[in-house]
């Protein structure tokens, strides 16, 4: 399976202040946190391999927060996001230190911390790498809604085990999750009447487009904004 798309159009990361939120610790991890702290509805955004400092991801977090959600974007990589131009550490090597199984364990700690703060319903959205973490969360009652955006390494068996309402937003041109695979996801969800499922394939875009779009590409920006709205609508529908 080609992973080159996971590394295309990388963001310019900045530890400087980006967004209207703040960086704080939750569940033992640093996280970008934004939105009303007294909200009983929380959204966890699980990044792609470039991590929680990506400006467009933080911008999206602020957008979600503006709808009344308490939004948490954790640093699942502990200050060590993937750096594409490091020839000594290609993506396959980097992944050895940052498996989604560890990400899932860390995510549970964050969910527990949110529950202890009085949050009553939690949604989670995963981008590329993060989608695998979110689908694992969706297999039990850890979260009340899941959204996978251009998922990586999510399998048919994963979708079969999902219990939480789940939306899958994929790209037409995606080697990690091609349309053929997404249509299998759709068929599986259609056969699970007890799980609200939704699959949408966005035409003309590539893996990673929702958080790694180029600002000058108006068509892709419009598609990304449509996906963001679909994600928000899903959380608004299922987080009560």
UniProtKB/TrEMBL annotation:
Annotated compartments: Cytoplasm
List, alphabetically, the Pfam families matched.
DLH
Task: Using the record's annotation, list all stretches that form the Dienelactone hydrolase domain.
Answer: 30-238
Query: Which GO terms of the cellular component aspect does the record hold?
Result: cytoplasm
Q: What is its main location?
A: cytoplasm
TM annotation in the entry: none
Domain of life the protein comes from: Eukaryota
Query: Which keywords does this chain's UniProt record carry?
Result: Cytoplasm
Q: Which SUPFAM superfamilies match?
A: alpha/beta-Hydrolases (SSF53474)
Which InterPro entries does this UniProt record tie to the protein? Answer: AB_hydrolase_fold (IPR029058), Dienelactn_hydro (IPR002925)
Protein's name according to its UniProt entry: Endo-1,31,4-beta-D-glucanase-like
Q: Which GO terms describe its molecular function?
A: hydrolase activity
């Amino acid at each position: 399976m080609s992973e080159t798309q996971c590394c295309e159009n990388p963001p310019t990361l900045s530890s400087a202040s980006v967004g209207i939120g703040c960086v704080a610790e939750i569940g033992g991890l640093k996280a970008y946190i934004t939105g009303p702290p007294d909200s009983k509805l929380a959204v966890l955004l699980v990044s792609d391999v470039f991590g929680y400092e990506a400006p467009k991801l933080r911008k999206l977090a602020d957008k979600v927060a503006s709808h009344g959600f308490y939004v948490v974007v954790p640093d699942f990589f502990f200050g060590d996001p993937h750096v594409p131009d490091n020839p000594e550490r290609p993506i396959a090597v980097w992944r050895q230190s940052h498996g989604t199984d560890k990400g899932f364990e860390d995510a549970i700690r964050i969910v527990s911390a949110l529950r202890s703060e009085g949050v009553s319903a939690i949604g989670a959205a995963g981008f590329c790498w993060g989608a695998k973490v979110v689908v694992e969360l969706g297999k039990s009652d850890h979260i009340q809604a899941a959204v996978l955006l251009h998922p990586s390494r999510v399998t048919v068996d994963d979708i079969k085990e999902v219990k939480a309402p789940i939306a899958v937003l994929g790209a037409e041109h995606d080697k990690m999750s091609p349309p053929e695979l997404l249509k299998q996801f759709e068929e599986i969800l259609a056969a699970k009447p007890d799980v609200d499922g939704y699959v949408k394939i966005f035409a003309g875009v590539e893996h990673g487009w929702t958080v790694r779009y180029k600002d000058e590409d108006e068509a892709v920006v419009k598609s990304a904004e449509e996906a963001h709205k679909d994600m928000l609508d899903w959380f608004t529908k299922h987080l009560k």
